[in-house]
């Protein structure tokens, strides 16, 4: 009880000290200025002011129009605005709680936005003809034209053959082609699609007929009919007319693709240069890498 009396007396004397009274009055004034004055004046601090600018309102209107194919009415626009305010409040509260820190998804989004900002700050001109030619020369293997095969075939359909008769029909046709190799017209069944007449790459043949047909044409001597080759469609008797060897691409053949790749390479180089400049602001310490 004596200790409480002494503590109360000490506090009472301290409160009568002019210096302490001055400090308390100053603190009260600052609190009033921060919390009470804005409420009385109708203003808000920047941290608590939520303003929906006209440009954002236009964006909400455009999003609604794109989603529903018509303009929102006034009530719908008000609801969109209130929903935007709700989202903004949640966003600010999440930042205040530090929810943006340590979240890999948020981290990736911010990194992506920074990359966009870097690209906007360093616009690149279209690559010149000389730059395209130089890029093609440096990466010739990437754009090399693969070998192409021009061939004809006699097709035996599984659907048009009696059960177990597909191989027998193909064998009879093969024997006939060996005696009259230059006259395949009218033999076999029609393909379920129109076969290309121009030379095709191995990948194109593989997509259309399967790997077995493509592999057979890679090793088949020109002018010679093959043994029956199976595919998902049926059996194929193949004759290679010509094999065009692979070669380097010309600038005109790959210009569109080359322009995209060259511009991307220039963008990556510009981004790397900017990142290297930004690195100078930081002291980087890496854990031992072994």
TrEMBL record:
Tell me its EC number(s), please: 5.2.1.8
Catalytic activity as recorded in UniProt: [protein]-peptidylproline (omega=180) = [protein]-peptidylproline (omega=0)
Region span, Disordered: 179-198
InterPro entries from the entry?
Answer: PPIase_dom_sf, PPIase_PpiC, PrsA_foldase
For the PpiC domain, which residue ranges apply? 127-242
Any single GO molecular-function term of the entry would be: peptidyl-prolyl cis-trans isomerase activity
- Which keywords appear in this protein's UniProt record, sorted alphabetically? Isomerase, Rotamase
Name the PANTHER family on file. PEPTIDYL-PROLYL CIS-TRANS ISOMERASE HP_0175-RELATED, PEPTIDYLPROLYL ISOMERASE
Q: Tell me the protein family, please.
A: Belongs to the PpiC/parvulin rotamase family.
Would you tell me the protein name for this molecule?
peptidylprolyl isomerase
Q: Which organism is it from?
A: Solimonas aquatica
């Amino acid at each position: 009880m004596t200790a409480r009396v002494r503590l109360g007396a000490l506090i009472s004397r301290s409160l009568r000290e002019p210096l302490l009274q001055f400090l308390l009055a100053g603190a009260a004034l600052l609190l009033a200025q921060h919390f009470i004055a804005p409420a009385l004046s109708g203003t808000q601090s920047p941290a608590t002011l939520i303003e929906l600018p006209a440009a954002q309102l236009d964006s909400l209107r455009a999003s609604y129009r794109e989603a529903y194919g018509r303009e929102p009415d006034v009530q719908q626009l008000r609801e969109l605005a209130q929903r935007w305010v709700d989202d903004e409040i949640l966003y600010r509260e999440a930042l205040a709680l530090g929810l943006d820190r340590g979240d890999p998804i948020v981290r990736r989004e911010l990194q992506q936005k920074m990359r966009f900002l870097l690209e906007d700050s360093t616009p690149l001109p279209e690559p010149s003809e000389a730059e395209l030619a130089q890029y093609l020369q440096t990466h010739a293997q990437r754009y090399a034209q693969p070998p192409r095969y021009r061939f004809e075939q006699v097709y035996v359909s599984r659907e048009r053959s009696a059960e177990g008769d597909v191989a027998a029909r193909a064998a009879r046709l093969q024997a006939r082609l060996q005696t009259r190799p230059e006259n395949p017209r009218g033999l076999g069944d029609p393909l379920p699609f129109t076969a290309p007449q121009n030379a095709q790459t191995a990948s194109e043949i593989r997509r259309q007929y399967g790997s077995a047909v493509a592999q057979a044409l890679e090793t088949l001597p020109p002018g010679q009919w093959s043994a029956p080759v199976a595919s998902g469609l049926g059996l194929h008797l193949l004759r290679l007319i010509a094999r065009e060897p692979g070669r380097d691409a010309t600038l005109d053949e790959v210009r569109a693709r080359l322009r995209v790749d060259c511009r991307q390479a220039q963008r990556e180089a510009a981004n790397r240069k900017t990142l290297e400049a930004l690195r100078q602001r930081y002291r980087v310490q890496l854990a031992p890498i072994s």
